[in-house]
Specification:
Layout: E1 4-10, H1 16-27, E2 32-34, E3 43-50, H2 57-61, E4 65-73, E5 75-77, E6 86-89, H3 97-107, E7 109-113, E8 122-123, E9 126-127, H4 128-133, E10 143-156, E11 159-166, H5 172-182, E12 187-197, E13 200-201, H6 208-216, E14 236-238, H7 241-248, E15 253-254, E16 265-269, E17 275-282, E18 285-291
């Protein structure tokens, strides 16, 4: 059974669910999961988890994301991107690099952001976009986000091209609207490319055609990254062979580490450097959260 993470280059027009269905057909593997939605109109990095690696998808989901985005100024849409209908227009003031970078600086850092109506956020069991398609608008609670970096790449009278690195849960469509409003106009996201999800970079992402060729050549497994690639933020711990057996059976083991903090997650390895578990350190013990047996 294949186990690992594929750094997939999702083309525009494909949903995250479409990508999973495609690779189920292509590889014959049923247990495949994506690591968070990427808007159908957007392209870029979409890590896909195969086999037991689906158990680390939640950790990939919370990784920092990076994008290149094009903001079109002067016209707002009901979806906040180019797929929607124009709902407002406003003149665009003369732009300068200083004006744009000042707005970028003000929007960088930790702050709150309200999810757009056209999003997969659920309220009382219903996805917001389902309500929006029925013409309904409901109150949404703002959520904490972190804009790590906003960098201007180019601009002209009514377009701004920029790079952004941000936390999970940040809506770039909404960020575009916020930038436009701060500049005294309105606007929408007209192009989006995801360039990184944690350590999964655009430069290493594989297209549908490349993946198809690898499957046909019997080499697809060679491009799957190990499941623990998603856990680079967690410290590591190596246990004895006997302790490894106990952890794989769900038992707690003592862990002597003066720097360990209660509640911290560890990626745990056996003496042969095989990744076996994600454990939480509690009261001097490594307590298994997820275990990974041989495929």
């Amino acid at each position: 059974m294949r186990i690992g993470i594929l750094n997939f280059l999702k083309p525009p027009g494909m949903t995250s669910h479409d990508a999973v269905a495609l690779f189920r057909r292509l590889t014959g593997v049923r247990r495949i999961g994506h690591t968070g939605t990427l808007d159908p109109g957007a392209a870029g990095v979409l890590p896909l988890c195969f086999g037991q690696a689906t158990r680390v998808a939640e950790y990939v989901l919370t990784m920092e994301k990076s994008y290149r985005a094009l903001l079109a100024l002067g016209k707002a849409t009901d979806t906040e991107d180019s797929s929607g209908n124009i709902c407002a227009e406003k003149p665009v003031p003369p732009l300068s690099e200083g004006m744009i970078t000042e707005v970028f600086a003000a929007l960088t850092g930790r702050r709150m952001q309200t999810p757009p109506m056209y999003s997969a956020v659920r309220i009382k069991g219903q996805k917001l976009y389902e309500l929006a398609r029925r013409g309904e608008t409901v109150e949404r609670k703002a959520r904490p986000i972190h804009i790590h970096r906003l960098e201007l790449r180019a601009f002209r009278s009514d377009k701004i091209l920029f790079d952004v690195s941000c936390s999970h849960g940040t809506y770039i469509r909404t960020l575009c609207r916020e930038i436009a409003e701060a500049l005294g106009t309105t606007g929408h996201l007209s192009f989006l490319l995801r360039t990184a999800v944690g350590t999964f970079l655009l430069s290493g992402a594989l297209t549908v055609e490349e993946c198809t060729s690898l499957v046909e050549a019997g080499k697809f497994d060679s491009v799957l990254k190990p499941a623990d690639t998603a856990l680079y933020r967690f410290p590591s711990a190596t246990v004895t062979q006997e302790e490894a057996k106990r952890i794989l059976n769900g038992a707690f083991v003592r862990f002597k580490n003066s720097k360990a903090m209660t509640g911290k997650l560890y990626r745990v390895y056996d003496p042969d450097d095989r990744f076996i578990a994600v454990c939480k350190f509690v009261n001097g013990e490594l307590r298994p959260q997820k275990v990974f047996h041989d495929r």
